[in-house]
């Protein structure tokens, strides 16, 4: 951590704190401080997505590559959003299915648009968007 740590006191109802301690134990946190820091960071990431800031993340799609037009369409869409795409990974899951993971960075609204364009295609069986960080 490069920034200096500051301490602050928090008053919290006992039952809420008990719940929080159970939560952080189940998530394997060693102490409350790191858990609170992560929750705050996660909230800021969420906020960046809502306010359409520059963000990074990944889009994963699963599709059947035997539908030839679908593969062409998936490639076309990715070329249309080429400025957002940093990298992509293609994995042949089995005889029929491919998994593609597309790493993106750019305006949150455009990333959502790209994800929606891909996952709404007929033949794309699953599409997820994972948000990583605000920049
Ligand atoms: Ni494949």
Structure description:
With 135 residues, the protein is α+β, with helices and mostly antiparallel strands. The chain has two domains: 14-50, Arc Repressor Mutant, CATH 1.10.1220; 54-133, Alpha-Beta Plaits (2-Layer Sandwich), CATH 3.30.70.1150. Helices cover 42% and strands 30% of the residues. The protein is built from four helices and four strands, in the order H-H-E-H-E-E-H-E. It has helices spanning 14-26, 32-50, 68-80, 108-119, and strands at 54-64, 85-92, 97-107, 124-134. Strands 2-3-1-4 form a four-stranded antiparallel β-sheet. It is elongated and about 60 Å long. The model has no long low-confidence stretch (mean pLDDT 92). Nickel (II) ion (NI) binds next to strand 2. The site of nickel (II) ion has 4 residues, from strand 2.
